[in-house]
Amino acid sequence: MARAAAAKGVPFLHISTDYVFDGTGDQPFVPGHATGPLGAYGRSKLKGEVGVRAAGGPHLILRTSWVVSAHGANFVKTMLRLGGERESLNVVADQIGGPTPAAAIADALLTAAKAMTHGANGGTHHFAGSPDTSWADFARAIMAEAGLSCQIRDIPSSDYPTPARRPLNSRLDCSALDIAFGIRRPDWHVGLRDIVQELRA
Ligand SMILES: NC(=O)c1ccc[n+]([C@@H]2O[C@H](COP(=O)([O-])OP(=O)(O)OC[C@H]3O[C@@H](n4cnc5c(N)ncnc54)[C@H](OP(=O)(O)O)[C@@H]3O)[C@@H](O)[C@H]2O)c1
After folding, report:
1. Beta partners for 15?
2. Is 72 within 8 Å of 23 (Cβ atoms)?
3. Is 41 annotated as catalytic?
4. Residue ranges lining ligand 1, Cβ < 6 Å
5. 166 near 62, Cβ under 8 Å?
6. Residue 107 pLDDT greater than 90, yes or no
7. N or C: which end of the chain has fewer CB within 10 A?
8. List 10, 31, 33, 41, catalytic entry
9. Which residue among 20, 64, 95 is best mutated to probe the pocket of ligand 1, counting the most ligand atoms within 8 A of its Cβ?
10. Residue 161 pLDDT > 90
11. CA–CA separation, 109 vs 84, rounded Å?
12. Beta strand extents in the chain (DSSP E only)
């Protein structure tokens, strides 16, 4: 697809992920930071990025994280379901990142696409909701927004083993996207409220 777009000079938008990084440290990753995926998903996404760049056309690679929405399966919907069924939940508290409403990603991509159609440069950028938080604190915010009394207990990732290793640090430095396109990090509290309202409706 990137090669076909390049052949026609059409800007190509590619959604990528914080999983291209190794998740070490506690500082936000800038777009130029060395990549080091921990698993097959991150490796395949990184290959996608490499392929898009190699196609040689105008492109925007937008790395995002912790995508949430009223649609599809995602953390917000899982928490709302479990929060309605249980009195308490154990949620990992040592993975930190920016929950990102899918609608905000769509808005950002539209803004960037319009600018690129008028000649703006693309490149590799980061876009994540603000402020950075842990899954556990995000779960608490979800319960509060939905009026659920389910208690969230902090646990370390080591107590929640998954087949694939997940990065502890998913913080993304999104300042380059603001400078290039005037696109700011969206406040995920607003997006969360919209998602809960959409699900209620
Ligand atoms: N979820 C996250 O937290 C997260 C974080 C960072 C980046 N991302 C990136 O965001 C993008 C979307 O992720 P997601 O979590 O929303 O994934 P998802 O829920 O699995 O949705 C993927 C979508 O792609 C469609 N699709 C898959 N293979 C396709 C194919 N061969 N041809 C056409 N359509 C195809 C699927 O169609 P069907 O519905 O018909 O299967 C589905 O609508 C991915 O690039 C992912 O790497 C996601």
Report:
1. 62
2. no
3. yes
4. 15, 17, 45, 64-67, 72
5. no
6. yes
7. C
8. 41
9. 64
10. no
11. 34
12. 12-17, 59-64, 67-68, 88-92, 96-97, 100-101, 123-126, 133-134, 151-155
pTM of the predicted model, to two decimals?
A: 0.96
| Closest-CA residue to 70 (of 137, 148, 145) | 145
Distance 95 CA to ligand 1 centre (A): 22
Q: What's the rounded Cα separation, in Å, for the pair 101 and 194?
A: 9
Residue nearest (by alpha carbon) to ligand 1 atom 10: 15
pLDDT tier, 149 (very low <50, low <70, confident <90, very high otherwise): very high
Mutate to test the pocket of ligand 1, among 17, 19, 76 (most ligand atoms within 8 A of CB): 17
Identify the residue whose tokens are 């803004």. Answer: 111
Is 2-200 a domain of CATH 3.40.50.300? no
